[in-house]
Automatic annotation (TrEMBL):
Keywords: Cell membrane, G-protein coupled receptor, Glycoprotein, Membrane, Receptor, Sensory transduction, Signal, Taste, Transducer, Transmembrane, Transmembrane helix. Residues 1-20 form the signal peptide. This is Taste receptor type 1 member 2. Its main location: membrane. Forms heterodimers with TAS1R3. It is found in: Cell membrane.
Length: 835
């Protein structure tokens, strides 16, 4: 065993050896460094080769694909141009070996040919570091499927491969395919471009057709992953015919069914994710079934396919937009494509391996010259730039300068890192693999122009991933459907009107009913499927997209009611002050004593506090004001009424109890019963108030008014009724007691008889209490506050004028009745009447 060579055995691949080398040929060019090129010059089938006998498939048996010949010529053009140039690789000649792969039918054999050495032998080694295959790098092949097959093999040998048309995302996998590069954007970019297109025209209701192969499925997956806000009306798979000549009845039936589904779909936009070979039957059927007025969006694979464009009456199906590689114009290439160089016989005789022949290519290219010139270079530019990428890599590897290069043995794996590093300008286009190992050339949007057969694929827009939108060229897109020039609409439901929310009618978010937002809610543009409630201090009418601030109402200082209220309370306050002074001056007179003596001052102080508290009902309620409203008056009133009750009771007891129950009476007098009573009542009251405050902490709240949503009342309590009930229950009990005692004493001497005054106070109390309660149950808002304040003023006035007024009257106008003698006479006459 030889240790150095590690040769286990040699496999001789028998290949037709070249005879005399022709200098110029489409398939073979001798040079110091050879590039391999793989093109589909022939294809009309998706099928694998016949597998019954072991022979390399013959591509010439299939139909000519003239576009691929143009790509092949682009490679040849690039190599010759580099060879002619004295700067890129001076003194070095590039050569090529190009093979027809007829789609992917013949993709293995050419690789073996490229891997073989000059003697057509592929050696079996354990270590290929110092193995020199025939070619240094491979350009192509075109289809994704073939590119992946080729990449599997070339990656093992670390031979750089630059695809010019394979968009599949599989090639992005740097782990699996460390040497695969591409000069075209990937599928994902194609989908992004399509989605930009949909967004531009606001089409969100679409049909998706995809071919029943890897290309269709991969694209579909990517589309689903990215299509946010796009809904699919119909998704169907187009069967892939195995032979382009014959279509089985079963497949014919399937295609008919798909076309008829597309016809009946409500969506007007059809995305077709398919390879070109699948589509002729489909579009022929579409024309046959009179499909019209649709917008078709073509995947890159068929976006610039002349054979489809050539289908009779295809213009009827509507507008065809597509995603295609960007157009660049390569100077001099149009002439080169159909030129026959000197010494170039354009015939098949120069082939060194199988499928390096195309008898009709040049002739067909010359026939199609006119339309090919009009179409411009798209994929051709990708091929052209691929060759330049390898040349620039070599330039660095060979350490070239303007005068020459260090010509030496180069192994393919040495080229790979240099390819990764290339960065140069070609026809003003910057070319490098910086962004995720991808794409010197990206996509643009084209439209099929039915009225311009010379320029069938017109570019209409490019797109920018940075700006996230289409950048239209200055070309008006004419839609080929009625009515012309109007952008067709493809939505499941029309946009809702202002202030309407979307009620979904199916699982897809694009189909919905439009319903007005209710009053008090609004439509936020972030969520079109729900109405948001307005904040508490704002309102909206039905069908609104915004809320308006409400007018906050409260009892204001300048209102008439306020003025009247304050006027009365000021008068009441003055009167109470006057009464207080009068009572202080005449504190020793019997009238004052009979009215309660020192207890009167307790009442008067309470009344003064009560009056001073009235302004708390006016102005913007604050927590403090609310607290005052809820506690002060209630407490004052209880003080007054408990004093009155005690006083009535005492008078009754003097006249009635003292005689009958002298013991009890003396106890009452001895322990100051009246003050104990008042203290107990006050303690009770304070307990009630504290409980109320705890249950309903007084704080200003906004209360919406039913009849007018634009106004909101600012008041102290939302529902005050329970608290009011609890508050007044004690007062009510006391007033009934008071009323009872005063009524009991109605036959007492006139100057002790308080019944009618107390009745007046009680009437005030009960009427105002009931009124407040009724108003609170029926209304909300400022009226409640007014009633509340009015109740307070009336009650306070009632006590100060009703109870103290008559006594002042006596003091001022009948001083003769305000004497001890007069009182004794009255008592004596009363006792005599009793006896
Ligand atoms: C290269 O030079 C030859 C002869 O000088 C010329 O015929 C040929 O057209 C050139 N090729 C290109 C691509 O410029
Ligand atoms: C392959 O051969 C090269 C040079 O002959 C050597 O440097 C390298 O280590 C070898 N690799 C392996 C895996 O043996
Ligand atoms: C298509 O239209 C033509 C005439 O306009 C009509 O004869 C033919 O039956 C139609 N085909 C279908 C499938 O509707
Ligand atoms: C288009 O059709 C015409 C005649 O129907 C044919 O001559 C021409 O070659 C076709 N072109 C292509 C690109 O297939
Ligand atoms: C590069 O240029 C230098 C002089 O500028 C020259 O000596 C040398 O031979 C040239 N060639 C190479 C391959 O470096
Ligand atoms: C193989 C080939 O075409 N070689 C040519 C490269 O270009 C120089 C001129 O720059 C020619 O002299 C070679 O014949």
């Amino acid at each position: 065993m030889r240790s150095t060579g590690l040769i286990v055995t040699c496999v001789s691949v028998l290949l037709t050896m070249a005879g005399a080398e022709t200098q110029y040929s489409d398939f073979h060019l001798a040079g110091d460094y050879l590039l391999g090129g793989l093109f589909s010059l022939h294809t009309d089938t998706m099928s694998s080769p016949h597998l019954s006998h072991s022979a390399v498939p013959t591509c010439q048996a299939y139909k000519l694909k003239i576009a691929s010949y143009s790509y092949l010529r682009a490679m040849r053009f690039a190599v010759e141009q580099i060879n002619n140039s004295s700067t890129l690789l001076p003194g070095v000649s590039l050569g090529y070996e190009m093979v027809d792969v007829c789609y992917f039918t013949n993709s293995i054999h050419p690789i073996l040919y490229f891997l073989a050495n000059k003697h057509s032998v592929v050696q079996l080694h354990n270590n290929y570091t110092h193995y020199q295959p025939r070619v240094l790098a491979v350009i192509g092949p075109d289809s994704s499927q073939a590119a992946v097959i080729v990449a599997h093999v070339l990656s093992l040998f670390l031979i750089p491969q630059i695809s010019y048309r394979a968009t599949t995302n599989e090639l992005n996998d740097r782990e699996r395919f460390p040497t695969a590069f591409r000069a075209i954007s990937n599928m994902e970019q194609q989908i992004v471009a399509m989605l930009f297109l949909l967004k531009e025209f606001q089409w969100n209701w679409i049909n998706i057709l995809y071919s029943d192969d890897d290309y269709g499925r991969q694209n579909l997956k990517l589309l689903w992953a990215r299509a946010i806000g796009i809904c699919v009306a119909l998704q169907d798979v187009i069967p892939v015919p195995r032979s382009s000549q014959l279509l089985s009845l079963e497949l014919q039936g399937k295609i008919k069914a798909i076309v008829s589904k597309v016809v009946h779909s409500t969506a007007k936009v059809v995305i077709v994710l398919s390879l070109e070979l699948t589509l002729p039957f489909f579009f022929q059927e579409a024309v046959r079934q009179n499909v019209t007025d649709l917008v078709w969006i073509a995947a890159e694979a068929w976006a610039i396919e002349p054979t489809l464009y050539n289908i009779t009456d295809l213009w009827r199906v509507g507008t065809i937009l597509g995603v295609a590689a960007k157009e660049f114009s390569i100077p001099g290439f149009d002439d080169f494509r159909v030129s026959l160089a000197e010494g170039d016989n354009g015939q098949a005789s120069d082939q060194t391996t199988c499928n390096q022949a195309c008898d009709q290519c040049l002739g067909a290219a010359r026939d199609a010259d006119h339309s090919m010139r009009a179409q411009g270079e798209r994929i051709d530019f990708n091929v052209y730039s691929s060759v330049y990428i390898v040349a620039h890599a070599l330039h660095r590897l060979l350490g070239c300068n303007t005068t020459g290069c260090h010509k030496r043995m180069v192994y393919p794996w040495q080229v790979v890192p240099e390819v990764k590093r290339v960065d140069f300008s070609l026809l003003d286009k910057r070319i490098n693999f910086r962004d995720r190992g991808d794409t010197p050339n990206s996509f643009e949007i084209i439209q099929w122009k039915w009225d311009q057969p010379n320029n069938p694929f017109q570019k209409i827009a490019s797109y920018s991933t940075k700006n996230k939108k289409l950048l239209c060229y200055e070309i008006v897109i004419v839609f080929f459907q009625f009515p012309f020039t109007q952008v067709p609409i493809s939505v499941c439901s029309q946009q809702c009107e202002y202030g309407q929310w979307r009620k979904p009618v199916s699982v897809s978010s694009c189909c919905f009913e439009c319903i007005d937002c209710e009053a008090g809610t609004f439509l936020n543009n972030d969520d079109l499927y729900n109405c948001q409630p307005c904040p508490a201090d704002q309102w909206s009418s039905a069908g609104s997209e915004e809320c308006y601030p409400r007018l906050v109402k409260y009892l204001e200082w300048q209102e008439g009611t306020t003025v009247v209220l304050l006027l009365f309370s000021v008068l009441g306050l003055i009167a109470t002050l006057v009464i207080s002074v009068t009572f202080a001056i005449h504190s020793h007179t019997p009238v004052v004593k009979s009215a309660g003596g020192r207890m009167c001052f307790l009442m008067l102080v309470s009344l003064i506090i009560g009056f001073v508290n009235v302004p708390m009902y006016v102005g913007i309620p604050t927590e403090f004001k609310c607290m005052c409203r809820q506690t002060v008056f209630s407490l004052c009133f209880t003080v007054c009424i408990s004093c009155m009750t005690v006083r009535s009771f005492q008078i009754i007891s003097i006249f009635k109890m003292a005689a009958r129950l002298p013991k009890a009476y003396s106890y009452w007098m001895k322990y100051n019963g009246q003050y104990i009573f008042i203290t107990v009542i006050l303690a009770l009251k304070v307990a009630i108030i504290v409980t109320n405050v705890i249950i309903h902490p007084p704080a200003p709240v906004l209360v919406a008014l039913e009849d007018d949503p634009s106004i909101v009342a600012l008041q102290c309590n939302k529902s005050y009724k329970l608290a009011l009930l609890m508050n007044s229950s004690l007062d009510t009990f006391l007033s009934i007691l008071c009323f009872y005692f005063s009524y009991m004493g109605k036959e007492l001497p006139k100057n002790y008889n308080e019944a009618k005054y107390i009745t007046l106070c009680m009437a005030c109390f009960s009427v105002s209490g009931i009124a407040i309660f009724l108003v609170m149950s029926m209304y909300r808002g400022v009226l409640v506050t007014i009633c509340d304040a009015m109740g307070v003023v009336i009650n306070l006035l009632g006590i100060s004028t009703g109870y103290f007024g008559p006594k002042c009257y006596l003091i001022f106008f009948h001083p003769e009745r305000n004497t001890a003698a007069y009182f004794q006479t009255a008592i004596q006459s009363y006792t005599m009447r009793q006896d």
